[in-house]
Amino acid sequence: MKTRRCVMGSRALLLIGAVSAGCSTPTNPTDDAASERSAPATDSAMYDASALLDSPTAPTTDANGMDDASASDGGGRCATPGRWGAPTQTFTLPAPNAQGELYIPDVQARFTTVNWATLERLYIPAGRYTLINLGNLPNRSADRPLVITNTGGQVLLRPNAGSRQGYIWSVTGGSNWVITGRYDPVSRTGDSAFRGHDCDAYANSRERYGIVSDGIFLSEGHMGLGVTNATSFELDFIEITRSGFAGLRINSSAMGGAPPAPLANIRIHDLYIHDIKSEGIYFGWTGAPPSPLAERTQVYNNRVLRTGTEAMQLQNLGDGSEVHHNVFAWGALDWRAAFGSFQDNASQLQFRRGTVRVHHNVVMGGAAALGNYFFSTEPGDTARSVVIEDNYFADTLSLGLYFGGTAGADSSLALRRNFFRGLDFGYTSVYPMATDPGVVIRAAGTITAAITVDRNAWEGPRRIIDGITGGAGTRGSVTATANTNGAVEPVSFVASGFPAAAPTRRLELWTARATLAPSMPAMTYAPGALVMHDGQLYECTAMNSNAAPDASPASWRRLALPADDVRLAPGSAYARAEIGLQSTR
Question: Which of the four CATH numbers 2.40.128, 2.10.10, 3.40.390, 2.60.120 does domain 508-561 have?
């Protein structure tokens, strides 16, 4: 059994019937129900997205589904001004010190003349910062939030090379506050010269946000933004890149013997998180209970691209939580040399109680599974109703979705109108004992909740779920209806900037050695291989081994940075169904 030594004090979780790891519980659930793999579904009807979405027009893509539609430089719907009203009470924090640090671990104690109960804007002056620490933020009411934003230009966090600092950006305490880089001339937030993806200007929007956190891969323990012991807050229009561990880390910890404060009413949206060493979003506690319950958590309209491990890892989700209209793509790029074994899913979610919905997302690029999902309860938790619908899942080396943990007859799981393609088994180069799962979806035997698998589409020779042959049938608590096996249309992005005809899984994080494979072989790259290295995209031009791209121009060609306009192509069936990013509001 493998375990992971978790950053932030997390402890290993046990995956029943599979290999185990820690903060990001692994999946290689390929051996149970092995007898069900002998007769894969072979429905004769070919399937396309237009059929399920009642749309006659297919998106325009190349054979691998990664060619871009016509590029756009914006010109779309702009955010409506006046979101937070016009402020009358404002306060501007001091500029950073000579070392570029803004260190205020207790803002209320530091600025005693400020009325923290009524202050409407807390401004961070534009400039280059190496470190920001804002602690003991106030508790406010939902109808009068404290809005924290940049003023006078862009706030750029970027540590100095060689620094030994322990973190990049830390925020602690309080409730009903907002951190935003959104330009709003009425609400007086952000700056007109740094509007990020406003007006749908997604293409080449890097470093155009009002607030940018660039960790330069300084330390493997660094987070681009860490929020601790806060609740009912909002993060909006922020760019986070080159974090040494997670891009965004949110947690609540027990203090003074008291249970951790709940992570309730949190909204994470319109963030651009890209080129991260490990998790893109790392939310919640993965260790022993008690854990902070995350009810009414909303994660939407985010771009989380090119992460070393999971693009998103959300724990302790409770009633009213939703994950929707995001694009999580090019996940698990570091699967050969991640910080621990089996840290290579595209996404991971944990459901605790109430109704949780995961819908209208694009999830692309994993090694073990595209979705590694768990049911878990703690004292006082009630039944769970989990709905996963209208999502596009593509490109992995093993499983589509895995459901672990324990859920009884009082709970339910509904999988409706999801699309699966690119499930091409290739996990043995790092984990030679792995076997082809033979299914798209797998649930552990400890889950006896009613499982509905309805109107999903998948391509390839696998079964849709253990025990079901074809697109319909019943086995135990599983009921499958109107699922279709056949060709599934790939998504087409507006202007991803990723090379055409290159499937998601072709891109990996460069490593000199496959440190997680037996005997840790040196990596050999063949011409045409695509890698990310230090946040840059390279293509191999000559067979090489152990040649770092930035130091080997004879073997590697540096490509343009991806444009990252990962909206779905206008007019495509998926876009008409409003899957993926939506215009800002």
Answer: 2.10.10
